Amino acid sequence: MTQDQNSLSAALTTHPKPPRRFTLNQPGVWLAVVAIVAAGAVWVHQQHEVDGLRAKLAEQSAQAAKREQDAQASYAAAQLQLRTVQQQIALVSAKEAEAQSQQSSLASMYDTLTRSDTQRSLADIEQNLTYASQQLQLTGNVTAALTVLDAADRKLQELNKPELISLRQAVTHDMDKLKALPVLDTVGITARLNSLIDELDQLPLSVDVNRAPAAPASNTADRSWAGSFGAELWADIKALIQIRRMDKPDAALLTPDQSLFLRENMKLRLLDARTELFSHDEKGFKADLAAVNRYLAQYFDGSAKPVQNAQAALNDLSRISFAQNLPSLDSSLAAVRSARTTAERAKP
Questions:
Q1: CATH T-level fold of 64-183+326-345
Q2: Is the per-residue pLDDT at 5 higher than 70?
Q3: Which helix (H) or strand (E) segment is 44 a member of?
Protein backbone atom coordinates (compact mmCIF):
# COMPACT_ATOMS: atom_id res chain seq x y z
CA MET A 1 0.00 0.00 0.00
CA THR A 2 2.71 2.39 0.90
CA GLN A 3 4.60 1.56 -2.27
CA ASP A 4 1.52 2.24 -4.33
CA GLN A 5 1.04 5.58 -2.63
CA ASN A 6 4.61 6.56 -3.31
CA SER A 7 4.23 5.66 -6.95
CA LEU A 8 1.05 7.68 -7.16
CA SER A 9 2.67 10.65 -5.48
CA ALA A 10 5.63 10.47 -7.79
CA ALA A 11 3.29 10.35 -10.77
CA LEU A 12 1.26 13.33 -9.61
CA THR A 13 4.32 15.47 -8.81
CA THR A 14 5.04 18.07 -11.59
CA HIS A 15 8.63 18.41 -12.65
CA PRO A 16 9.84 21.96 -13.66
CA LYS A 17 10.78 22.50 -17.29
CA PRO A 18 14.46 23.05 -18.07
CA PRO A 19 15.29 26.70 -19.05
CA ARG A 20 15.69 27.51 -22.75
CA ARG A 21 19.28 28.12 -23.67
CA PHE A 22 20.24 31.02 -26.06
CA THR A 23 22.27 29.76 -28.99
CA LEU A 24 23.80 31.48 -32.05
CA ASN A 25 22.31 28.90 -34.32
CA GLN A 26 18.96 30.65 -34.30
CA PRO A 27 18.13 32.42 -37.67
CA GLY A 28 16.64 35.51 -36.01
CA VAL A 29 19.91 36.31 -34.28
CA TRP A 30 21.88 36.23 -37.49
CA LEU A 31 19.30 38.35 -39.29
CA ALA A 32 19.47 40.97 -36.52
CA VAL A 33 23.26 41.01 -36.63
CA VAL A 34 23.29 41.38 -40.41
CA ALA A 35 20.72 44.21 -40.23
CA ILE A 36 22.74 46.06 -37.59
CA VAL A 37 25.98 45.72 -39.59
CA ALA A 38 24.25 46.86 -42.81
CA ALA A 39 22.71 49.86 -41.07
CA GLY A 40 26.08 50.82 -39.61
CA ALA A 41 27.77 50.52 -43.01
CA VAL A 42 25.09 52.68 -44.62
CA TRP A 43 25.44 55.26 -41.86
CA VAL A 44 29.23 55.36 -42.18
CA HIS A 45 28.97 55.70 -45.98
CA GLN A 46 26.45 58.52 -45.67
CA GLN A 47 28.63 60.31 -43.13
CA HIS A 48 31.60 59.97 -45.47
CA GLU A 49 29.58 61.40 -48.40
CA VAL A 50 28.28 64.26 -46.24
CA ASP A 51 31.80 65.11 -45.06
CA GLY A 52 33.06 65.10 -48.64
CA LEU A 53 30.20 67.32 -49.78
CA ARG A 54 30.83 69.73 -46.92
CA ALA A 55 34.52 69.94 -47.76
CA LYS A 56 33.75 70.56 -51.43
CA LEU A 57 31.20 73.25 -50.62
CA ALA A 58 33.65 74.90 -48.21
CA GLU A 59 36.36 74.93 -50.89
CA GLN A 60 34.01 76.40 -53.50
CA SER A 61 32.82 79.01 -51.00
CA ALA A 62 36.42 79.98 -50.22
CA GLN A 63 37.24 80.28 -53.92
CA ALA A 64 34.14 82.40 -54.54
CA ALA A 65 35.03 84.65 -51.61
CA LYS A 66 38.57 85.06 -52.95
CA ARG A 67 37.27 85.96 -56.41
CA GLU A 68 34.90 88.46 -54.84
CA GLN A 69 37.75 90.03 -52.88
CA ASP A 70 39.87 90.21 -56.05
CA ALA A 71 37.01 91.85 -57.95
CA GLN A 72 36.44 94.35 -55.17
CA ALA A 73 40.16 95.13 -55.07
CA SER A 74 40.24 95.61 -58.86
CA TYR A 75 37.18 97.84 -58.71
CA ALA A 76 38.69 99.92 -55.89
CA ALA A 77 42.00 100.20 -57.79
CA ALA A 78 40.17 101.30 -60.93
CA GLN A 79 38.21 103.89 -58.96
CA LEU A 80 41.41 105.16 -57.38
CA GLN A 81 43.14 105.31 -60.76
CA LEU A 82 40.19 107.18 -62.24
CA ARG A 83 40.21 109.70 -59.41
CA THR A 84 43.97 110.12 -59.75
CA VAL A 85 43.68 110.73 -63.49
CA GLN A 86 40.87 113.21 -62.95
CA GLN A 87 42.92 115.08 -60.36
CA GLN A 88 45.93 115.14 -62.68
CA ILE A 89 43.81 116.40 -65.56
CA ALA A 90 42.33 119.10 -63.36
CA LEU A 91 45.79 120.10 -62.14
CA VAL A 92 47.22 120.22 -65.67
CA SER A 93 44.22 122.21 -66.89
CA ALA A 94 44.60 124.69 -64.05
CA LYS A 95 48.30 125.10 -64.71
CA GLU A 96 47.70 125.44 -68.42
CA ALA A 97 45.00 128.05 -67.84
CA GLU A 98 47.28 129.92 -65.45
CA ALA A 99 50.20 129.81 -67.89
CA GLN A 100 47.99 130.97 -70.75
CA SER A 101 46.61 133.79 -68.62
CA GLN A 102 50.09 134.94 -67.65
CA GLN A 103 51.35 134.65 -71.19
CA SER A 104 48.36 136.55 -72.53
CA SER A 105 48.83 139.32 -69.97
CA LEU A 106 52.54 139.66 -70.73
CA ALA A 107 51.96 139.61 -74.50
CA SER A 108 49.22 142.21 -74.21
CA MET A 109 51.41 144.53 -72.13
CA TYR A 110 54.35 144.10 -74.46
CA ASP A 111 52.29 144.69 -77.60
CA THR A 112 50.69 147.78 -76.12
CA LEU A 113 54.06 149.32 -75.35
CA THR A 114 56.33 148.44 -78.26
CA ARG A 115 54.62 146.83 -81.25
CA SER A 116 52.59 147.91 -84.18
CA ASP A 117 49.37 146.27 -85.36
CA THR A 118 51.22 144.04 -87.87
CA GLN A 119 53.74 142.91 -85.28
CA ARG A 120 51.02 142.11 -82.76
CA SER A 121 49.13 140.11 -85.38
CA LEU A 122 52.26 138.19 -86.34
CA ALA A 123 53.00 137.47 -82.68
CA ASP A 124 49.46 136.18 -82.17
CA ILE A 125 49.73 134.02 -85.28
CA GLU A 126 53.06 132.59 -84.14
CA GLN A 127 51.73 131.83 -80.68
CA ASN A 128 48.64 130.13 -82.04
CA LEU A 129 50.64 128.16 -84.59
CA THR A 130 53.06 127.00 -81.89
CA TYR A 131 50.19 125.78 -79.71
CA ALA A 132 48.49 124.07 -82.67
CA SER A 133 51.75 122.37 -83.66
CA GLN A 134 52.21 121.03 -80.13
CA GLN A 135 48.65 119.72 -79.99
CA LEU A 136 49.03 118.16 -83.42
CA GLN A 137 52.14 116.23 -82.43
CA LEU A 138 51.00 115.26 -78.92
CA THR A 139 47.33 114.44 -79.41
CA GLY A 140 46.90 114.40 -83.20
CA ASN A 141 44.19 117.06 -82.99
CA VAL A 142 43.87 117.87 -86.69
CA THR A 143 40.67 119.88 -86.23
CA ALA A 144 42.30 122.32 -83.81
CA ALA A 145 45.27 122.77 -86.15
CA LEU A 146 42.97 123.49 -89.11
CA THR A 147 41.02 126.02 -87.02
CA VAL A 148 44.23 127.87 -86.09
CA LEU A 149 45.51 127.88 -89.67
CA ASP A 150 42.17 129.14 -90.98
CA ALA A 151 42.15 131.95 -88.40
CA ALA A 152 45.73 132.88 -89.36
CA ASP A 153 44.81 132.94 -93.04
CA ARG A 154 41.84 135.25 -92.37
CA LYS A 155 44.02 137.53 -90.27
CA LEU A 156 46.65 137.75 -93.00
CA GLN A 157 43.89 138.48 -95.51
CA GLU A 158 42.73 141.37 -93.33
CA LEU A 159 46.26 142.77 -93.03
CA ASN A 160 46.70 142.58 -96.84
CA LYS A 161 50.48 143.21 -96.71
CA PRO A 162 52.63 142.30 -99.76
CA GLU A 163 55.51 141.23 -97.51
CA LEU A 164 53.22 138.62 -95.91
CA ILE A 165 52.37 136.79 -99.17
CA SER A 166 54.96 134.07 -98.56
CA LEU A 167 53.61 133.53 -95.04
CA ARG A 168 50.07 133.17 -96.37
CA GLN A 169 51.25 130.67 -98.99
CA ALA A 170 52.95 128.57 -96.29
CA VAL A 171 49.79 128.61 -94.16
CA THR A 172 47.63 127.60 -97.15
CA HIS A 173 50.03 124.77 -98.01
CA ASP A 174 49.86 123.36 -94.47
CA MET A 175 46.05 123.61 -94.53
CA ASP A 176 45.91 121.60 -97.76
CA LYS A 177 48.14 118.89 -96.28
CA LEU A 178 45.97 118.57 -93.18
CA LYS A 179 42.74 118.49 -95.21
CA ALA A 180 44.11 115.63 -97.30
CA LEU A 181 44.51 113.42 -94.22
CA PRO A 182 41.92 110.69 -93.46
CA VAL A 183 39.65 111.88 -90.68
CA LEU A 184 39.31 109.73 -87.56
CA ASP A 185 35.60 109.63 -86.69
CA THR A 186 35.97 110.23 -82.95
CA VAL A 187 32.31 111.20 -82.60
CA GLY A 188 31.08 107.98 -84.19
CA ILE A 189 33.51 105.84 -82.19
CA THR A 190 32.46 107.58 -78.97
CA ALA A 191 28.80 106.96 -79.80
CA ARG A 192 29.48 103.24 -80.34
CA LEU A 193 31.37 103.01 -77.04
CA ASN A 194 28.51 104.74 -75.22
CA SER A 195 26.04 102.35 -76.82
CA LEU A 196 28.09 99.36 -75.64
CA ILE A 197 28.19 100.80 -72.11
CA ASP A 198 24.39 101.18 -72.10
CA GLU A 199 23.85 97.62 -73.41
CA LEU A 200 26.08 95.86 -70.86
CA ASP A 201 23.33 95.63 -68.23
CA GLN A 202 21.03 93.76 -70.65
CA LEU A 203 23.54 91.17 -71.89
CA PRO A 204 22.76 87.64 -70.57
CA LEU A 205 25.36 85.79 -68.53
CA SER A 206 26.20 82.14 -69.13
CA VAL A 207 25.07 81.23 -65.61
CA ASP A 208 21.60 82.72 -66.27
CA VAL A 209 20.95 80.70 -69.38
CA ASN A 210 18.65 77.72 -68.83
CA ARG A 211 17.42 76.61 -72.18
CA ALA A 212 15.92 73.14 -72.59
CA PRO A 213 15.87 71.41 -75.97
CA ALA A 214 12.46 71.38 -77.63
CA ALA A 215 10.73 68.02 -77.49
CA PRO A 216 10.07 66.55 -80.91
CA ALA A 217 6.44 66.54 -81.94
CA SER A 218 4.96 63.08 -81.75
CA ASN A 219 2.15 61.79 -83.89
CA THR A 220 -0.22 60.41 -81.28
CA ALA A 221 -2.68 59.30 -83.93
CA ASP A 222 -0.27 56.58 -85.16
CA ARG A 223 0.38 55.25 -81.65
CA SER A 224 -1.66 53.00 -79.47
CA TRP A 225 -2.90 54.05 -76.07
CA ALA A 226 -0.16 52.09 -74.35
CA GLY A 227 2.53 53.60 -76.60
CA SER A 228 1.27 57.17 -75.97
CA PHE A 229 1.14 56.58 -72.24
CA GLY A 230 4.67 55.16 -72.24
CA ALA A 231 6.02 58.10 -74.27
CA GLU A 232 4.41 60.62 -71.94
CA LEU A 233 5.72 58.77 -68.88
CA TRP A 234 9.24 58.66 -70.33
CA ALA A 235 9.09 62.41 -71.15
CA ASP A 236 8.02 63.17 -67.56
CA ILE A 237 10.85 61.05 -66.16
CA LYS A 238 13.43 62.81 -68.36
CA ALA A 239 12.09 66.21 -67.26
CA LEU A 240 12.86 65.40 -63.61
CA ILE A 241 16.61 65.60 -64.18
CA GLN A 242 18.31 67.92 -66.66
CA ILE A 243 22.03 67.64 -67.31
CA ARG A 244 23.77 70.61 -68.92
CA ARG A 245 27.36 70.85 -70.02
CA MET A 246 29.17 73.91 -68.66
CA ASP A 247 32.31 74.66 -70.66
CA LYS A 248 32.88 77.79 -68.51
CA PRO A 249 33.22 76.67 -64.84
CA ASP A 250 34.19 80.17 -63.68
CA ALA A 251 30.98 81.64 -65.09
CA ALA A 252 28.89 79.15 -63.13
CA LEU A 253 30.37 80.37 -59.81
CA LEU A 254 29.43 84.03 -60.32
CA THR A 255 27.23 85.43 -57.58
CA PRO A 256 24.85 88.37 -58.25
CA ASP A 257 27.28 90.76 -56.53
CA GLN A 258 30.16 89.49 -58.60
CA SER A 259 28.08 89.87 -61.76
CA LEU A 260 27.46 93.51 -60.83
CA PHE A 261 31.17 94.10 -60.26
CA LEU A 262 31.96 92.38 -63.57
CA ARG A 263 29.62 94.67 -65.51
CA GLU A 264 30.94 97.78 -63.71
CA ASN A 265 34.52 96.75 -64.45
CA MET A 266 33.66 96.36 -68.13
CA LYS A 267 32.04 99.80 -68.14
CA LEU A 268 35.20 101.30 -66.63
CA ARG A 269 37.25 99.60 -69.32
CA LEU A 270 35.07 101.13 -72.04
CA LEU A 271 35.28 104.55 -70.38
CA ASP A 272 39.08 104.23 -70.32
CA ALA A 273 38.99 103.32 -74.02
CA ARG A 274 36.95 106.46 -74.71
CA THR A 275 39.52 108.58 -72.86
CA GLU A 276 42.37 106.92 -74.76
CA LEU A 277 40.56 107.64 -78.02
CA PHE A 278 40.78 111.39 -77.40
CA SER A 279 44.42 111.12 -76.29
CA HIS A 280 45.25 108.94 -79.35
CA ASP A 281 46.60 106.12 -77.16
CA GLU A 282 46.01 103.29 -79.63
CA LYS A 283 47.77 100.64 -77.52
CA GLY A 284 45.70 101.33 -74.40
CA PHE A 285 42.51 101.66 -76.48
CA LYS A 286 42.91 98.22 -78.04
CA ALA A 287 44.01 96.64 -74.72
CA ASP A 288 40.82 97.82 -72.99
CA LEU A 289 38.63 96.61 -75.87
CA ALA A 290 40.40 93.24 -75.84
CA ALA A 291 39.77 92.91 -72.08
CA VAL A 292 36.05 93.64 -72.51
CA ASN A 293 35.86 91.15 -75.39
CA ARG A 294 37.58 88.54 -73.23
CA TYR A 295 35.05 89.08 -70.44
CA LEU A 296 32.21 88.67 -72.94
CA ALA A 297 33.63 85.37 -74.19
CA GLN A 298 34.31 84.04 -70.68
CA TYR A 299 31.25 85.03 -68.68
CA PHE A 300 28.42 85.82 -71.12
CA ASP A 301 26.18 83.63 -73.28
CA GLY A 302 27.92 83.56 -76.65
CA SER A 303 24.85 82.12 -78.38
CA ALA A 304 22.73 85.19 -77.54
CA LYS A 305 22.33 87.67 -80.39
CA PRO A 306 23.03 90.80 -78.26
CA VAL A 307 26.31 89.29 -77.05
CA GLN A 308 27.32 88.43 -80.61
CA ASN A 309 26.49 91.98 -81.73
CA ALA A 310 28.58 93.42 -78.89
CA GLN A 311 31.53 91.18 -79.79
CA ALA A 312 31.25 92.18 -83.45
CA ALA A 313 31.21 95.86 -82.47
CA LEU A 314 34.30 95.40 -80.28
CA ASN A 315 36.11 93.59 -83.09
CA ASP A 316 35.27 96.42 -85.51
CA LEU A 317 36.51 99.04 -83.04
CA SER A 318 39.71 97.05 -82.41
CA ARG A 319 40.56 97.21 -86.12
CA ILE A 320 40.58 101.02 -86.08
CA SER A 321 44.07 102.44 -86.47
CA PHE A 322 45.11 105.76 -84.96
CA ALA A 323 48.43 105.76 -86.77
CA GLN A 324 48.66 108.68 -89.18
CA ASN A 325 51.63 110.37 -90.79
CA LEU A 326 50.75 113.78 -89.42
CA PRO A 327 52.52 116.66 -91.12
CA SER A 328 54.15 119.37 -89.06
CA LEU A 329 53.55 123.12 -89.18
CA ASP A 330 57.26 123.90 -89.41
CA SER A 331 56.93 125.73 -92.72
CA SER A 332 54.25 128.08 -91.37
CA LEU A 333 56.20 128.63 -88.15
CA ALA A 334 59.40 129.39 -90.08
CA ALA A 335 57.54 131.79 -92.38
CA VAL A 336 55.87 133.69 -89.52
CA ARG A 337 59.16 133.98 -87.61
CA SER A 338 60.88 135.25 -90.71
CA ALA A 339 58.08 137.81 -91.19
CA ARG A 340 58.41 138.94 -87.59
CA THR A 341 62.17 139.34 -87.93
CA THR A 342 61.67 141.40 -91.08
CA ALA A 343 59.07 143.57 -89.34
CA GLU A 344 61.39 144.11 -86.35
CA ARG A 345 64.21 145.24 -88.62
CA ALA A 346 61.90 147.57 -90.53
CA LYS A 347 60.73 149.22 -87.29
CA PRO A 348 61.75 152.93 -87.18
A1: Four Helix Bundle (Hemerythrin (Met), subunit A) (1.20.120)
A2: no
A3: helix 27-114
